[in-house]
Amino acid sequence: MSVLIFVELDEGKIKKSSQEAIFYGAKVAGMMGTAATAVVLGEADSAELATAGRFGATKVLHAADPKLNETNGMAYASVVAAAAQQEGAKVIVLAKSSLADAMAARLAGKLKAGLAANVIDLPQLGDSFRVKRSIYTGKAFAETELTADTKILAIKKNTITPEETDATASVEAFSPALNEGDFGLKVTNTEKATGDVLLPEADLVVSAGRGLKGPENWAIVEDLAKALGAATACSKPVSDLDWRPHHEHVGQTGIKVSPNLYIAAGISGAIQHLAGVNSSKVIVVINKDPEAPFFKSADYGIVGDVFEVLPRLTKAVQAL
Amino acid sequence: MKILVCVTSVPDTTTKITFTDNNTKLNKAGVQFITGPYDDYALARAVELKEQTGASVTVLNVGEADAEPVIRKCLAIGADDAIRVNADPVDAYFVAEQIAAIAKENSYDLILMGRESIDYNGGQVHGIVAEMLGIPSISPVMKLDISGTTAKMTREIEGGKEDLEASLPLVLGCQEPIAEWKIPNMRGIMTARTKPLKVVEPSSRETLTQVVSYELPAPRGAVKMIPADQAETLIQLLRTEAKVI
Ligand SMILES: Cc1cc2nc3c(=O)[nH]c(=O)nc-3n(C[C@H](O)[C@H](O)[C@H](O)COP(=O)(O)OP(=O)(O)OC[C@H]3O[C@@H](n4cnc5c(N)ncnc54)[C@H](O)[C@@H]3O)c2cc1C
Ligand SMILES: Cc1cc2nc3c(=O)[nH]c(=O)nc-3n(C[C@H](O)[C@H](O)[C@H](O)COP(=O)(O)OP(=O)(O)OC[C@H]3O[C@@H](n4cnc5c(N)ncnc54)[C@H](O)[C@@H]3O)c2cc1C
Predict the structure, then answer these.
(1) Could you tell me if the CB of A73 is within 6 A of ligand 1?
(2) pTM score, two decimals?
(3) Is the predicted pLDDT of residue A1 greater than 90, yes or no?
(4) In the predicted model, what is the mean pLDDT of residues A294-316?
């Protein structure tokens, strides 16, 4: 009857968001008087998988079939469903991501499970099973009761801060029969930036808008991001104009982020932009217009020219 | 080729959300309802495919009668006909069951949805429907071309994108830049009035989630302004006061 946690790797390491999911899942398991089991798909280093123990998992099921190296939501859902069945898991936890979303939806269909997306707090257990989820793109929360027997919780980044111990998890091979029908998609090409901090995973984000005037000026944004170890992001017009790749576009119709720090440079703060970033812990706004709406949603503000302010901030970070 | 486009009727992106009835209902007063922006991308691509290949485009909404203006607008943009499942769409699984039931009856080659609704942001209806139909689902799709029974797509992944191929039928969750949003023209608006809009009752009633109450986020504290010529102070404050770096 364990709580099952779907864990993702990036470049061979457990993703930060998955560490949060494990810690969250272990807390839920504690509340329910049961253990937390992680499930990992695709080839991976067992020593790395054992580190799931640091965040509270007692066991890791490892489905190492090389066919699962390709991230495939359909095949992943079948394997996670098999793991849930083996473990008798009625609660499945995962951190929101493009892969986890695709997997979780299929899993909900398979298991007829109630799926709560963008969960932002630990559940309330009692006569019912309730979670708080973020809705209207961060403009509100809905206290939601999950009435199905099986529950899937997709947690939003920064829902919980993991505390680490030095425990290790036992790693068990898990080899359910794979379903041919799940492999009907053919990936013909993949383009992925390597070495950069992934935007949805980032604790710190430096974002810039049309105030930067053109793509040739992005070095000052990237320099600050690099000094901080932050990911870069942008407003919608910036990606529409092809100044930056689409996967950096944040907001209502882009990536939703909730980092510890969101720095917005040369972004006016339109409501659709705010919707995707308003659950960031701390927001810094740099804009030359003191009337820019974004200042109303900021914690710290600088009225100034980005071309002067950003390099000064970079220097100050480098001097730390 | 038969295309089904599933659309939501959602508060305009500029809406200030508030609740009534002791925080148990959305306050609809003064709220302008629009087609979900992602659904609009799906519809726009469907209409382009119709123009290129002669496909038929049916629009489907699970919602109450107040969603009809949004459905009519989709007809004005170029869909051929529409179906409304007459029910309050209170749960993703419930909505998915309605869509799957209609899809089983009419066997579409392509079911296009938005990547996610902008009210409940679940990003799950496409996956659940595809699972119910036993066919592949892909999301978020930012490029789609059809040749014969093969779909060629580009999907966004974290930090990049991926090109994919699959055979129809498929369920896709769409996002920009799959197509440009379309604005209805006068002729579209006129013809939309007489295009068929069929209203059907739900085929099942089961839900798996239920909202108990709503709440608004706590307002942020006052902004602390730092003079531009002392920008370095910000970095100190982020370290010592906000403790985020
Ligand atoms: C349905 C819908 C969905 C949308 N979804 C999104 C979304 O997901 N994300 C999103 O971002 N937008 C979205 N938008 C667009 C949104 O409404 C705004 O148009 C957009 O966010 C503006 O981008 P911006 O702030 O970069 O540009 P602008 O609004 O042009 O602002 C530029 C800012 O830079 C400042 N500036 C200029 N020069 C300097 C300088 N040298 N130094 C300092 N500051 C300077 C200006 O004062 C101004 O405030 C959406 C719109 C619609 C209708
Ligand atoms: C007045 C009102 C009250 C609502 N109350 C609730 C509530 O209490 N709880 C709740 O969970 N939801 C509620 N919703 C409904 C919500 O908009 C969705 O229809 C449904 O819950 C699925 O949400 P999701 O965010 O998981 O969809 P997603 O999975 O994010 O949607 C993905 C795509 O699926 C398609 N789709 C989703 N919903 C529909 C639909 N209804 N008709 C046709 N296609 C659709 C669209 O193409 C959409 O882009 C309400 C909607 C309205 C208008």
Answers:
(1) no
(2) 0.93
(3) no
(4) 97
Ligand nearest the Cα atom of residue A271 = 1
**What would the two tokens of residue A49 be?**
């998988």
Q: Which residues of A are annotated as a binding site?
A: 210, 266-273, 287
pLDDT digits (tens, 9 = 90+) for A30-63: 999 999 999 999 999 999 999 999 999 999 999 9
The answer to whether A318 contacts chain B (CB < 8 Å) is no
Residue B210 in contact with partner chain A when CB distance is under 8 A: yes
The boundaries of the domain holding residue B106 are 2-214
At B99-113, the pLDDT tens digits run 999 999 999 999 999
Q: Mark yes or no for CB contact B157/A98 under 8 Å.
A: yes
B-proximal residues of A, 54-93, CB under 8 Å: 71, 73-74, 77
User: What is the second-level CATH architecture of the domain A199-319?
Assistant: 3-Layer(aba) Sandwich (3.40)
Three-state secondary structure call for residue A64: coil
Q: Would you state the pLDDT for residue A197?
A: 83
How far is residue A247's CA from residue A8's CA, in Å, rounded to a whole number?
Answer: 19
Average pLDDT over residues A249-277: 95
Evaluate whether residue B245 is within a structural domain.
Answer: no
Q: Is residue B137 part of a domain?
A: yes
The answer to the question of residue B240 being in a domain is no
Shortest distance between the Cα of B148 and any Cα of chain A, in A, equals 16
Q: What's the distance, Cα to Cα, between the start and end of chain B in Å? A: 54
CB-based contact A186 B164, cutoff 8 Å: yes
Shortest distance between the Cα of B171 and any Cα of chain A, in A, equals 12
Binding site residues of A for FAD, as ranges? 210, 266-273, 287
CA distance A181 to B244: 46
B245 Cβ contact list (under 8 Å, min separation 6): A204, A228, A261, A317, A320, B235, B238, B239
Residues of chain A with CATH 3.40.50.1220: 199-319
CATH of domain A2-183: 3.40.50.620
Rounded Cα gap, residues A257 and A309, in angstroms: 24
pLDDT digit string (tens) for B36-77? Answer: 999 999 999 999 999 999 999 999 999 999 999 999 999 999
The residues of chain B scoring below 70 in pLDDT are: none
Q: Where in chain A is the domain with CATH 3.40.50.620?
A: 2-183
Query: How far apart are alpha carbons A183 and A1 in whole angstroms?
Result: 30
Tokens of A5: 């946690």
Cα separation of B209 and A153, whole Å? 12
**What is the pLDDT, as a whole number, of residue A198?**
87
Strand partners, A211: none
Task: Residue B121: list chain A partners with CB under 8 A.
Answer: 117-118, 134-137, 256
pLDDT in tens, A12-32: 999 999 999 999 999 999 999
Q: What is the pLDDT of residue A40?
A: 98
Question: Which chain A residues are closer than 8 Å to B92 by Cβ?
Answer: 108, 115
